[in-house]
Amino acid sequence: MKGPCYSAPDKTFIRNTFDSISQRYDLLNQILSFGMSEAWRERSADMVLGEADFFPKTILDLGCGTGKFLECFMKRRAWKQAVGLDFSSEMLKKARETVAGNAVWLEQDFDRMPFLESSFDLVISAFTLRSAGNLDIFLKEVHRVLADGGRVAFLDLTRPGKGVAALFFYPYLRRILPALGWIISGDRKAYRFLADSVCYFQTSDHTVKAMETAGFRNFQLKRFAFGAATLIIAAK
Ligand SMILES: C[S@@+](CC[C@H](N)C(=O)[O-])C[C@H]1O[C@@H](n2cnc3c(N)ncnc32)[C@H](O)[C@@H]1O
User: Fold this and answer.
1) Which residues contact ligand 1 via a Cβ below 6 A?
2) pTM (global) more than 0.85
3) Which of 49, 80, 217, 225 lies 20 to 30 A from 155 at CA?
4) 83: CATH
5) Torsion over CA of 173, 175, 181 and 182, rounded to 10 degrees?
6) Cα–Cα distance between 28 and 233 in angstroms, integer?
């Protein structure tokens, strides 16, 4: 499943959806990922910040939601500037209420970032690529705001390869996850979108190719839970 026919739903749907599920979003993430989503974020932060020759001072989290990914990076070191950007006011409200530290939480569309070229040493984003209306433009924008030598880290849900994991994965993704998401969040369309986007979004190999075209290099990939999630790190 490559996903050239995948296209993200329109922005109004996405923003309304996250506004409506914001109160239950973190709980549902943990339940639906069998408690693994938090560990994936933590291990991603360890990997990115563990690189010996990389000492970022400024960080931007795109589609930061309730701020859980940025929080992992903030508690590991002091930052000169930390920015979480999202267009859902309700998700950001939770971030402001729950994440300690001095991050700036910015309500903004990531297709219209108000930053100059080379503004950040590190750009991160978790579980957000599937929401980008035009991934090529999104990647070019990320490249633009990243400083030379800076790193980008995308963590997202992906599909396991063939085998036992895949055998369980698809029935879970297509039937159990949307039903559970619907029951707990009360929003049926939100978790249908989650399941469909994971099923049809391009593979991480295709994402790496698109990132190469946007100008990124030195790729590292880390697959979690047999490929149910993948972290892509690259440099500018
Ligand atoms: C699945 S959530 C991920 C939240 C967070 N990164 C995490 O680790 O849980 C995707 C987030 O991306 C945001 N988002 C989607 N499209 C966006 C856009 N065009 N501009 C800004 N934020 C966007 C949504 O509002 C939502 O909060």
Assistant:
1) 11, 14-15, 18, 63-65, 68-69, 86-88, 91, 109-111, 126-128, 131
2) yes
3) 80
4) 3.40.50.150
5) 150
6) 26
Q: How many domains does the chain have?
A: 1
Index of the ligand 1 atom closest to the CA of residue 61: 6
CA distance 69 to 159: 21
Residue 220 lies in a domain: yes
Task: Report the pLDDT value the prediction gives residue 162, as an integer from 0 to 100.
Answer: 77
235: β partners: 151, 217
Structural domain span for residue 44: 11-158+203-235
| Cα-Cα-Cα-Cα dihedral sign, residues 123, 197, 229, 185 | positive
Rounded to 10 deg, the angle between the 25-32 and 11-21 helix axes is 90
Q: Please, are residues 150 and 120 in contact by the beta-carbon 8 Å criterion?
A: yes
For 130, which DSSP code? G
- State how far the Cα of 49 lies from the Cα of 221, in Å rounded to an integer: 15
Question: What is the atom index within ligand 1 of the atom nearest the CA of 109?
Answer: 20
- Residue 192 Cα, ligand 1 centroid: separation in angstroms? 16
Task: Tell me the HSE value of 69 on the side-chain side, using a 13 A CA sphere.
Answer: 31
165 within a domain of the structure (yes/no): no
pLDDT digits (tens, 9 = 90+) for 189-215: 888 888 787 777 888 999 999 999 999
Residue 182 lies in a domain: no
The answer to whether position 75 is within a domain reads yes
Q: How far apart are CA 149 and CA 162, in angstroms?
A: 36
